[in-house]
Fold this sequence. Notes:
Layout: E1 8-10, E2 25-27, H1 36-58, H2 63-69, H3 73-105, H4 109-124, H5 127-135, E3 143-145, E4 151-153, H6 154-157, H7 160-185, H8 189-197, H9 202-232, H10 244-255, H11 258-287, H12 299-310
Antiparallel strand pairs: 1-2, 3-4
Helix pairs in contact: 2-11, 3-4, 3-7, 3-9, 3-10, 4-7, 5-7, 7-9, 8-9, 9-11, 10-11
Amino acid sequence: MSGTTAGRTPEGTAGPSKAAPAGTFEAIRAIPVRHYGRWVAAVVVVVLLGWLAYGFSQGKIIWGTVGDKLFDHTVMTGLWHTVLISVCAMAMGLVLGVLFAVMRLSKNPVTGAVAWLYIWFFRGTPVYVQLLMWFNLSLIFHTINLGPIYKNDTVAVMTPFVAALLGLGLNEGAYMAEIVRAGIQSVDEGQTEASHALGMTSARTMRRIVLPQAMRVIIPPTGNEFINMLKTSSLVSVVQYSEVLRATSDIGVSSNAIMELYFVASIWYLVLTSVFSVGQFYLERRYARGSLRSLPLTPWQKVRANLTTLRRPKVA
């Protein structure tokens, strides 16, 4: 057994040399196990981090510019555009993901084939190419004509926001379709059979029985996809949509502080990722209540647990 040992031994057994009165027990002086490797690893990591920080401090970087431009009006506008396009594209991807996952699992061969083709195409082509295709759609269709409902020039319809939304949302829908399909297939078939035996229709079974149980499997990768979407949204600058990276790049070029503004963009991406990562953690923790006997530790509970392990145990 590792760690500390404590207990009592009767007189005459292994223990301290000092004799104890007959018929009594004496406490064992236990020596805690010292983890020297942990201390060495911690020192190495701290030294490497210090070396990295020193290297950046000696570079030709005007750190004051980073602070001055952090809350610049143009940067704030780009930050808002990043959040807006990420949330809208993710919402579109979720709806399309559920729709095409159900279509692919359908017994109808036509809907199944269409869903497979959609997933195959958008997962097989780069997002960058998809954005450019939507932005230049007017080269193929000069007008968008929906008969008596709507008609307009494609150039007027395909604004940078619409092109970015279609490019990101349709691409995300293909990935979400596979995630939702995996979640649906994780639910035991007996649940569906029991629902049908009770007289529930297939649509109602999917909505009331299968999807709620599949959420436990769907939520973690969905949160990961949204975090990824925040960073992927930086590609929409190719269709002239002014998100945070494009805003900082424009300021950097005009003020000759390119690297400083890249740091500004990185700081805001880290802030957004951290905020949404916390939300993802607590959402996963909530849906894990029905399947885990003990919930994962919160960040504060992990800090307290790590501090407890570093503390030297008391000698018994």
